[in-house]
Amino acid sequence: MLTDEQGLAKEDFDREFEKALDMIYSIGLKLYRGNEDDAADFAQSLYPFALRQSHKFSGRSAFSTWLYRVAWNFGLEDLRRKKRLVTETIDNYEIAATETEAEFDEQEIADLRRHISALPDGYRIPLIMLFYENMGYAEISSLTGVKEGTLKANVHRAKAILRQKMRKGET
Amino acid sequence: MKKYSYPEAIREAVHLEYERKAPEALRLRVRQLMHLPLVKPWQFIGSVALLLASPLSFYLFGGKLVYSPNVLLLLNVSAGAAAFLLIFAGVAHRYADPKHKAELLNKLNALRARI
Asked: Kindly report the CA angle at B96 between A128 and A126, in degrees rounded to 5?
């Protein structure tokens, strides 16, 4: 049994984990390209891992914030183990300053959704973290272990791939 | 009518693709996990040591003490249970690691394909 000397009591941890399950499942879907079985396995394996780590929860932030970070760390580590996450480092990559930002309608969003799913993990995950999770490059870098320069390059490439696919109208 | 900028479109696409509620089956599985008692390593080692204590006493003092058939049966069962626990814990520990779990699944899939 988990001792209550530090962190959260087991009952409180269970209650909070259950409340955060939708969020955890969504992180799993993002990490594992929408595969529901993998996302469910991820959520299930996260429970004992987070429970073991729960003594590190200091209470300075909301528990859900702490769990959110633990979940991303745990999932990214799994992807790294499976060698699915590109972690090569590229320094001094120059990002094009003048990018023409396209605009999209509802139908194009459906296509974009498919194209994002098809991106390699090394491009797709930073893109999701940046635009959807509203993380900064520094935070993404600390979570993924990928240098900021590489992340910027990968996000830039991801956008370029998406733009190209959208232009071609690939299905 | 174009109404989404690039970041907005990505946000919307990601939301549609990946934001879903956890299925009820997962909720149940996690609840089941929550009810499993979590044993610390020293507790596990302690229980195995207790299980091994009886057969060990038989090994050490078997020549000096006289055991009834019922006690002998109990000693055998406890030694078997201890061995099973050790093997089970070893296997469970190994495949709790996602990397090893993935390797096992790959091997099983390869075996299935060969059959």
From this structure: 10
